[in-house]
Amino acid sequence: MNLAKGFRGGERQTALLIETLASRGNLQQTLVCRKDSPLREVLRDVSGLRFVSANHQLAGHGSVRKADTVHAHEAKAVHWAFLHHGLKGVPYIVTRRVDTPVKDRPSNRWCYRRAVRRVAISRVIMRELEMRGWGGVDLIPSAFSGLPTCEEATRRFHDTFAGKFLVGHAGALVDRHKGQRVLLEAARLLETRLPELQFVFLGDGEDREMLERESADQPNVAWLGFKENIGDYLAGLDMFAFPSRNEGLGSVLLDVMNVGVPIVATDVGGIPDIVQDNKTGLLVPKDDAIALSDALTRLYRSESLRAQLSQSAKQQLDRFSPEAMADSYISIYESIFRQEP
């Protein structure tokens, strides 16, 4: 179940799980999603996957064949799963992906308490759910996507900024969440100090026009928009900056680590589950452009530190693989099939 309108990190992880489970060949899957969901296009070639349309929580229940379990991947899907349980008695799993606390209201209490299992993708989400007292919580982190890369495309991208050291950012252009303004302020601080640094923003979102307008006088900033072949661009970066103000986990960091790019990120939400300060990346306080610029400067000036952090980061990726994520969920599914607590 995923009733989201767009396609962001949670939807990418939903798709990744479906694709990985399909490769096992021993599960029948149905995806309940909106009629206009981008997930339909992303997953159109997945063998045996059936789609059911539901633009809201009351729709689609009659179109779902008898299921052994329902897996809800976002907030509206949780309420859909609760209703489906009431209508057809199907047990359901909830995966919580955002680090904002679930509102303590009757509908949420009912939905989470009736779930047969509750899953958090990071320790901070796990703690928040446990504090609610709505039942036990499993920890299953998101996975890296294994994004395809093309050496020629990556080379062309890097050559566009010949002679520059590329500091990249990728994510929805929503400043209240991703903190792009903090990175823009850091870029201003470094504009004359380190003019060889070029800040490259990948992605789109509601704040794009505003952010572009505010940075129009910054020659060291480039806005490249949304890219289907994001792996080609991540692989061409020299450093990655992730100044989020809040973050459930930050799965894009796993994709950055997978292509060997060192990271500076904020110490918020689930990010410390991925980025261990001075071991697999550098962490800075949120909303602190000076600390961010200092960390970027430190990383830029030390090639050995960049290599050390990148190598250590890549060594931890086995526990964030799609196979590891699928194995954990299959274990939960099988416990439900066996009617274990």
Automatic annotation (TrEMBL):
Residues 154-315 form the Glycosyl transferase family domain. Coiled coil: none annotated. One of its GO terms (molecular function) is glycosyltransferase activity. Its EC number is 2.4.-.-. InterPro entries: Glyco_trans_1. The keyword Transferase applies. Keywords: Glycosyltransferase, Transferase. SUPFAM superfamilies: UDP-Glycosyltransferase/glycogen phosphorylase (SSF53756). This is Glycosyltransferase family 4 protein. It comes from Halomonas aquatica. The lineage of its organism: Bacteria, Pseudomonadati, Pseudomonadota, Gammaproteobacteria, Oceanospirillales.
